[in-house]
Amino acid sequence: MALSKPKKSDKKQTLSLSASVTKVREFNVPGVNHVRHVSLDQSDRLWISDFWGNLVQIDLQGNVIQEIETIGSGVYHTVTQDGDLIFTDKDKKVINRITQGNNITEFIKTGDWIPISIHSSHINGDLLVGMMKGVEGKVTRYNKTGKELQNLQQDIKGLEQYRIPQYITENFNGDICTSHWGKAVVVVNKSGQHRFSYTGQGRWFTPCGICTDVLGHILVCDGLNNTVHLLDQDGQFLSLLLTQQQGVEYPCSVCVDDENNLYVGQKETNTLTVYKYIK
User: Fold this and answer.
1) Around Cβ 119, how many Cβ atoms within 10 Å?
2) Which of 80, 115, 146, 216 has the most crowded Cβ, counting Cβ within 10 A?
3) How far lies 142's CA from each of 23, 185, 219, 278, in Å?
4) Going residue by residue through the chain (279 aa), what tens digit of pLDDT does each one get?
5) CA distances from 61 to 27, 118, 228 (A)
């Protein structure tokens, strides 16, 4: 009788943090000036962007598959459940969609709000978009067709939560995690109620790139302090996963693939470094 393939939930129960972090490989990404944002494609590929609007798709070994030059600056991106690439254009205040035929269309217009960060939910396919207008910030949820479903701007106590939601991701439990440069990591539940804020470990905290893994950990770059912080799903600090002693300088983007490899992009170079931290 053929053995059934283990489910992801079964595999998760056998995983744990490694005693140490291992550098697996490192490669340069042609076509970008630095790795400002990295996101995972469904087909075991990555999308990389820099501040000047260059978008490059690579495989997990660093080979370039395609390059796209956009008009906007500071492009952030995500891949939908249907395999479309979605990216923000903060200059035009729109969210664009690239279908698999490489046709670029305006998907969502955000009005007076500047779209910055974006993430496609692995749970239900919704789009989570971090935006700003002046000194205000918010996170808006859209469904797959671009219909606005939810605006998260203040918690239930009326306290301001968002200023500049520069990077955004979602945890396996539906929590929405955003990083705010020079401020904090802010985490709310799927209803928008504030769960916790993380403000670093006693030094000036400059959170930027953020992602989660299969175990519910939150990984966030601290660009100016040259570190990557590891938190549990409730905001408890676990460790400085990566530091300058391990060769990390100005980390600004992180992504974990389906094989639990951690990809770290740095601000001053187009180098992408891959680590193992889960066994």
Assistant:
1) 25
2) 115
3) 37, 22, 24, 32
4) 344 444 455 556 689 999 899 999 999 999 999 999 999 997 789 999 998 889 999 998 889 999 987 766 668 999 999 899 999 999 899 999 998 777 889 999 999 999 999 999 999 999 999 999 988 899 999 999 999 999 998 765 666 777 889 999 999 999 999 999 888 999 999 999 999 999 999 778 999 999 999 999 999 999 999 999 999 999 999 999 999 998 899 999 999 999 999 999 998 899 999 999 999
5) 8, 25, 22
Instruction: Name residue, tokens 């389906």.
Output: 258
The verdict on residue 269 lying in a domain is yes
Q: List b or e across 159-190, with b for residues whose CB sees 16 or more CB atoms inside 10 angstroms.
A: eebbbbbbbbbbbeeebbbbbbbebbbbbbeb
- The whole domain housing 111 covers 26-38+104-278
How many domains is the chain built from?
Answer: 1
- Please check whether residue 166 is in contact with residue 117, taking contact to mean a CB–CB distance below 8 angstroms: yes
Enter the tokens of residue 42.
């469904």
